[in-house]
Amino acid sequence: MSATLSILRSGPMTTVQDAGRPGLLHAGVSGSGPMDPPLFAIANALVGNPDDAAGLEFAGMGGEFSVSAPVRVAVTGDAAARISGEPIAAWESHDLLPGQILRVGALQRGVWGYLAISGGIASPLVLGSRATHLRTGIGGHEGRTLKVGDVLPLGDAIAAPCLRLAQPFARADGPIRVVPGPQDDAFDQGAWDLLAGDGYTVSPTRDRMAQAIEGPKIAAVRGHDIVSDGTPLGSLQVPGSGRPMVLMAERQTTGGYPKIGTVASVDLPRLGQIPTGQPVRFVKISRDDAEELLIAARKALRSLLADLRPKAGLVCESGFLLGINLIDGVAAVAESE
Amino acid sequence: MTPRVLCAGDQALAVEFSSRIDAAINARVIALAKSLADDPLPGVRETVPSYRSLLVCYDPEAVRGAALTETLQRRAAAISDAVSASRLWRVPLLFGGSAGLDLEDLAQMKSLSVDELIALFVSPEYRVYMIGFAPGFAYLGGLPELLHTPRLPTPRQRLEAGAVGIGGEQANINSVAGPSGWRFVGRTPLRLFDPARPEPFLFAAGDAVRFVPVSAEEAADLDAAVAAGETIVEPEIR
Predict the structure, then answer these.
(1) What residues 170-199 of chain B have any CB closer than 8 A to a CB of chain A?
(2) What is the pLDDT of residues B180-194, one digit of tens each?
(3) Main-chain phi, psi angles of A258, to 5 degrees
(4) Touching check for A253 and chain B: CB below 8 Å?
(5) How many folded domains does chain B comprise?
(6) Which residues neighbour B224 within 8 Å (Cβ) at sequence distance 6 or greater?
(7) For residue range B92-145, what is the model confidence (pLDDT) as tens digits?
(8) pTM as predicted
(9) Is B81 left (phi over 0), alpha (psi -120 to 50) or beta?
(10) What CATH code is carried by the domain that includes residue B14?
(11) Do B12 and A126 touch (CB under 8 A)?
(12) How far apart are CA A325 and CA A332, in angstroms?
C-alpha cells in the first residue's frame, strides 16, 4: 500500500492544490490552484517535487498531520511549525517519520500558507488537475476543505536531502498596481483618485473566489451593468453596490460588472496575503510595466529555486552531484510558474 | 467592422466586437476563437468567447500585449462571417415540479395559462451565446420578448443542476447546483456538466437548443438513464 497523509486537525480552509487547471475557461471552469503561486512553487521545490505536484494550501491556521511512510515536508508562509513538539523552521524541508506529528500553527503574517510533502498528494485527477475548486466541489479531496480524519494518498517520493533557500524569498511592498481596462472608460479619474487614496481596507468578505475591498463607493459613470464578458484573474470589478472586488483563483469565468482594471499579476498574490482589515491602496501601472515586472519576478523565482542548498549538518558524501541533480529538478519547477 | 482590442491586465486582452447582444456578432466572436484554435498564435494560452467579445489569455514571456494586439486586430479583420457547422440539441424539459418554482407566478404575471406559457417557452430555437459563470453553465438567447423577466430581487440559496430558468432576456440551464436569482420553469434530466464523463461539458458557445416538453414519467426514465451513465441526447449536426 502506498504512503498516506492523515489529517489529525485542520484549520478552517485547508485544501489540496496543484499548479491549477488551465485551459477550461471557455467551459466555465476557472483555473483554481494556489492563491499564492510562488509560495506554493517554493514549498514543492524544497521537497524535490515537480511543479505539478499537489500539496496543501491553508488559510490562517494549518493543522496537525501524520504520515504512514518517511517523507520530507516544507512549510512556506510564516507559520510556527513543530515536529513532535520540536520547533522547525518554515522555508526549508524536514524529515517527517511515521509516528511523528507535524503541527502547523497560525501564520504570523499573511493569509495563505502551504505545506508540501515529498511525492505530492496523489488524489485523483479531475479535468486534468488535483486542484480543489471549492465553488463547484471538484478536485482535491472530494472537492472540499479537509477535515479531521481525512486520509490522503501520497505519491512516491525519491529520497533526497533536506533543502533550504540560499536567500529569503522577497517581494515588493507599496500599493497594489493595477493595469487599466478593459472597462476603464466606464470610470472617471475620481475613481482612480479614490483607489489611490487611504480610504480602503481588505474586507473580511474574502475567499478563494474573490477579495472584497471596503471603503468609499465607486461610481461607474455609465452604470454598473455591462453585457457579460470574460473575467481574467485579478479583475478589479465594481458592482452596483460601488464596493470594488478583485477576482481570484476560483472566480467565475464571465461576469456582468464593469472592470476598471486588472491587478498586475505580480501583485495579485501579495493582495491575497494582506490580512483582513489592513489598509490597501491601488495605483495605475501600464501594461508594459506590469509585463516587465511579471517577467522579472518569474526570473527571480527561477533563480531562487535553482539555488536551493542542502541543509547544513547533513551527511552528504556527494553533495555536489546531488546539487546538480536538484538543479535539474527545480529548473523544471520554474518553467511553469 | 473593426473590433477594439482592450487591455485586460498583463496576461489577457479582450477583443470586443460590440457592446450589444447580437447573434451575428456572437458568431464572429466564436469564429475568432475557432481561428485561434485551428491556427494558434505563439504565446496565446486560451480564449474565452462571450456574447460580444473574446478574452485572449497570453504569456507575456512568449508574446507582449502590444504586439499581440496588432496581430489580433489583423486576425479579427480577416475572419469570415461564414457560418460553420453547428449543433442542435433537443433538450427534454419537465415543466413545473421541484425545480419549476416560478412557473405559475410567471404565467400569472404574463396573463397566460401555464400551457400557453409552456408553448411560448418551447417555440424558439435558442442559441448558446456563451458558457460562463460556472462549469458548463449555458447562457441561451432567443427567449420570446413576452417572457423577458427581471431576476428575483433576492436570489434563492440552492437550485438543482438541470433547472431551466429565465433571467432578463435570457434563458439558462443550471449546470451545477447553487444559488440563483433566475426564475425557474422546470428542469431537464440532461447534465450539462459531469466531470466523470469522457466529454465533461455538453454544450459549446454557438450551439443551438430546442426544448422538448416531457412528462414526469418520461423525466423519471431519463433520470434513471442518466444515473446509469447512458447518453440521453445526441446533438444533430447541421
Answers:
(1) 175-176, 193, 195
(2) 889 999 999 999 999
(3) -70, 140
(4) yes
(5) 2
(6) none
(7) 999 999 899 999 999 999 999 999 999 999 999 999 999 998 999 999 999 999
(8) 0.91
(9) alpha
(10) 3.30.1360.40
(11) no
(12) 11
Instruction: Please state, in angstroms and rounded to a whole number, the distance separating the CA atoms of residues B162 and B173.
Output: 6
CA distance A92 to A48: 11
Asked if B200 has any chain A CB less than 8 Å from its own CB, the reply is yes
Q: How far apart are CA B233 and CA A221, in angstroms?
A: 46
pLDDT tens for B7-36 read 999 999 999 999 888 999 999 999 999 999
Single out the residue in B78, B100, B119 at which a domain terminates: B78
Cα–Cα distance list, B223 to A7, B114, B218 (Å): 37, 24, 9
Q: Does B65 touch chain A (CB under 8 A)?
A: yes
- On whether both B72 and B91 belong to a single domain, the answer is no
Q: Hey, is the C-beta of A182 within 8 angstroms of any chain B C-beta?
A: yes
Q: What is the CATH number of the domain that holds B191?
A: 2.40.100.10
- Closest approach of A223 to chain B, Cα-based (Å): 13
Q: Does residue B99 share a domain with residue B49?
A: no
Which ipTM was obtained for this model?
0.92
d(CA A51, CA A17): 12
Q: Of B16, B47, B78, which residue sits at a domain end?
A: B78
Whether B18 and B100 map to the same domain: the answer is no
Q: Do the Cβ atoms of B134 and A22 come within 8 Å? A: no
Cell numbers representing residue A2 in the block: 502506498
Q: What crossing angle do the helices spanning B65-78 and B23-38 adopt, rounded to 10°?
A: 120
